[in-house]
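BUG: 3D viewer hangs when loading the predicted structure for this chain

Environment: internal workstation, default settings.
Expected: structure renders.
Actual: progress bar stalls at 90%.

Input used:
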Amino acid sequence: MVGMMGSLWLCSVELVSLLPQLSDVQVVSVEVSDSAVAVYARTRSDEPAGCTGCGQLSEWCHSRYARRLADVTLAGRPLRIDLSVRRLYCENTTCPKVTFAEQVPGLTKRYQRRTPRLQSLVEDVGVVLAGRGGSRMLRILSIKLSRVALLSQLMRVPLPPLVTPQVLGVDDFALYGGTYGTLLVDATTRLPLTLWEGRDAEQLSRWLGEHPGIEVVCRDGSLTYRQGITAGAPQAVQVSDRFHLWQGLSRRVQDIASTHRGCLPAALPAVSEDSHLPVEETTDNAAADSRAGRHARSLFEAVHALTRTGRSHSSVARELGLDRRTVRKYARARTWQEVVRRPPRKLSTLDPYLDYLRQRWDEGQHSAKVLHEELQAKGYLGHYQRVKMAVAPLRRGLPIDEPRERPPSPRETARWITTHPHRRSLHINERLPRLLAHCPELNLTHDLVRRFVTMLDNRDATPLPGWLSDLKRSGLAPLVGLAGALHEDRHAVAQAITTSYNSGVNEGRITDVKLQKRLMAGRAGVRLLRHRVVLIAHLRRRHADRPTVPLR
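Structure tokens produced before the viewer hung:
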């Protein structure tokens, strides 16, 4: 009995804080059980109510009926409110309504069996967690709602009114499979506006025509979006994204480094002063004896034998059973060394014991199993297979493969060239000058990259035409192709260099879209995905702007 009275007192205290605007409602009784809390209340008879049709106040009561409302949990139990409300006559003779049911502000809404507070909670959980996850979360809060009902409530939430932005961000994202979508973002407020399936110029042009007043559009180098913006908002200034410009230039640098792969070992210091063989020659000889080298040489010869006859890359790929991109890579290479994969000999846990292995082998112990047991007695924790592979060259009369420093990969070389000199490590600053002195093509590429960086740092696009001309005259196919693409989009590239606008907010929202897709296991349709992406951004903004109440 004492426990029941304590629960009743606790519920009464929480009821005062949870039931809003109780001045129009009289609480008749409260029933508390282990499974639920039931509140019986009625509206006051002497209070006038506004007609839901015309808004005129009326006190002429027709009858009463009971409404059963669900509210947020109270003391950890589901809360049900049995509210007796009046049906009144409308005293306005011109109103189409004869009778109407009174509404309690903050507690009831027409045709709704949840309180506004519970409805807001259901909608917010649906926005944040979607169907199954939201249903599980509501079950923890003692609110039973299926995933289908939760998604239905989510789709009934109206989207915020769309205000035409001054600065618009446009970007594409992978929707599913090979299908892409388009996302529009207000670059000033950083809030998503809408998204749709596809990335065609006509749809973007139509949307821009329906929302005039856009002054600046941030985009990547897509020709489709460029055409759509030009057709739909010809007065808008188009700004190409600096990140995509830099990314495109870095990829071309990596392509050049891949083409001149034979020069990359020149970055390594000389092994000894009395070594007469060039670094490239020793490396190429080692690669030629490997299985990867023999495979690359045979493919190189087969691809070039067929392409010399004038056949297309696709037909060569079909005949050799290769991917078309692989055929293109081999066809562009001048030597087979440019395409061979030479995985370096990496440091391993066996390296400290190589001298002991060599000594025991010279003493006549040729059993890898015995050698592995001896190394284990000395503290070696590696596998037997590694010992077996280490002594394999000794069986062929070759020396043990000693660990050696590997030459930089094309990707590492591109990162060396594109990194600012002040941010390069001492290791890179020692090796990059040797590589650039050995390879004139990479040296020219390095100079062109540094000139582009100077334009970005100074926010000065004046040298851009001369820089594009030097790219064309460089004689390097990747840079020549890049120069052609940038020349067609030179006005947007100049805006990217000189202005502060960028597509960073677009990339951030694309990341958010991918997160929402993963939460729904990729099964969300475009309409549901649009609803969640737009609403969750406004929900975060609303809670971020809400002032915090200090703890007393």
